[in-house]
Amino acid sequence: MFDNLQDKMDRVFKSLRGEAVLNEWHIDSALKEIRVALLEADVHFKVVKEFTAKVRERAVGQDVLTAFSPAQQVTKIVRDELQELLGGSQVALAVVGTPAVVMMTGLQGSGKTTTSGKLALHLKSRGKKPLLVPCDVYRPAAIDQLRIVARETKTPFYEIGELRDPIRIAQDALKEARTMLHDVVILDTAGRLHIDETLMAELQRIKSEVRPSEILFVADAMTGQDAVKSAREFDERLGITGIVLTKLDGDARGGAALSIKSVVNKPVKLVGMGEKYADLELFYPDRMAQRILGMGDMLSLIEKVEAEVDRKEAERLASRVAKDKFTLEDLRAQLQQVKKLGPMSQVMKMLPGLGAQKIRDEDVDETAIVRMQAILDSMTRKEREYPQILNGARKKRIARGSGRSVQEINQLLKQYLAMKKMMKSFSKGLGPRKLAKFAKGLPPDLLR
Amino acid sequence: MAERSFFQKLKRGLFMTHTEVIEKVKEAFTPELGVDQGVVDALEEGLLGADVGAELTGEIIGKLEGRIRDKKISDMDELARVVKEETRALIPQHVMQTIDTTKAKPFVILVVGVNGTGKTTTIAKLATRWKNEGKSVLLGAADTFRAAAIEQLQMWADRAGVPMVKHKTGSDPAAVAHDTVAAAKSRGVDVAIIDTAGRLHNKSHLMQELAKVHRVIDKELPGAPHETILVIDGTTGQNGVSQAKAFLEAAKVTGLVVTKLDGTAKGGVILSIMRHFNIPVKFVGVGEGADDLIPFDPNDFVDGLFDAD
Predict the structure, then answer these.
(1) How many angstroms away from the CA of A103 is the closest CA of chain B?
(2) pTM
(3) Most CB within 10 Å of its CB: which of A87, A131, B260, B262?
(4) SS3 track for A319-352
């Protein structure tokens, strides 16, 4: 639905060639595109206004650098500013006190209970002994839900018995934590509207009774313009200490993160990235900036590749590519590596230029890799090392062996040659631009 | 059940904030200057702030500017009327449709949506509504994924006094859906409502699972589900469009329920959804009580976007 911002900006700056400084007209046209991109990403309109004004100030009159295209240059300013607004660096959780108290707050359905479980697991992996405490006495089965979450994350759970007063529950849980030597108490409070006077006052009372070292505002990444109002109200009433952004594994661009950050000026500390309890990650402002702009999640991809791909194998492949010796045998090894990265659709989404909006899961045929592998497996080692020997008779044999058609084998060979060519140019320097070009240039049948 | 009007209910929540748009416009408006850029900008910000989205806001403002040029608009009331007219024109005509459960027996409703939008609560409200109208209702707990989802629906079923079909957590949701429809047929109930697990619409395996649930229901009772309701959180921004698209493809959504409109969010994204996909909004959620799920009225919705009172 939305064009990639970089593409749009490239178009804006096409007419700039030959000029020495970025002029106002060009910058204003670019800023128009940026404004729409930010609004479509759900950044609050006031924040967008301030932000574009700031970028304009920085961009006007800058020398056109030869190393970058003007579009890249403005994008870089935008990204740097965004990153700064989102918080220059990571802020760690404040887990202070005996026990430390972490209070989970937010609107209904933002994901407080699930995040409480994820947080417990996160703290446990850091050697803490958390206690999960249900303070949501209103929503049906909320207590049961947290009890199950506690069981599934193997975290001690505070049984409230007949207690139905969230303030008493919090106080009693603290006492229990002291005797049982839990060093962190996680209070899962009920979801509430920020305009609900009674329930907001309840949170204030809990806060003054148990003095949390961390009051987290749990916010849904899909939230629109209202994020500003709810976050501001929670902050004014409670003095939140940090933000958890949930459901970031969806395709929302997450402009709410920027809105909230700029209004309450509290750091985003954690992000929810999936349905499993381990899917809670630290917040990286740089990645978020790129995501909001629809620039892909390059860093995440690189990191993922680094974590999953056997480094030695990767280096071996890289040197083969560099020496132009990339064979079908290498392609086969590479497919194994790619499979380790997870669904192809996810990998592709992280590439800039493709963007989350452009690739839907159904666009990517996950079985394509399986089919390619079947064909490669049916070849002899010699055939994989020297693809040029593949003649009609050999191809027919491979087709029979793999259960695929000769056309498919030819297609694979075509893809292989195209890949080989691209990888060669790719290996000469690894910049995001090249990588994007590479991704775009991938044979479409690799996806379909 | 005395039903307060959509507008009265909305006002309760929106009173504090809906003044903003019109107030801002009033501030920018002077009778001497008429409608100038300041007024248009204020309206634009009002629409953006209501989650109407950049694309649609641009369109509304464009049309408005055209009309201002053609015919000098010189007073606030006229301006407000024109803006509302242009906004109202974006809503397809048939959106007033409510859910007519008498069209089939059992009338099967499948409820879908992303995580945390209020599917279970919406089902509870729908069940209570139809139970109070004297219909027999059966619930199906096909959210077998989330911790305590079945217990949550069970508590609502008990409160509303309606039976529920359930399996264990972790079981196949399609099997629950199947059994719910089969039970609805054999017991001769009027309405069967099936809950499903919240799922992010970009996860293909989960969407395929949902498509399967839909298929299984259709197989057990051809033509069912008679309604597939997508529950959209009223605080959702532009991502709502992407949600609607994906759920429409996987589960043939026939209507929307927009929840949480009793806060300060205005739910403007549903304008885009109705526009792009021609899906009507059936109900809006404006509170926690069982009667706080009220039929959608396009005129009141548009009034709500702009008006204070």
Answers:
(1) 19
(2) 0.78
(3) B260
(4) HHHHCCCCCHHHHHHHHHHHHHCCCHHHHHHCCC
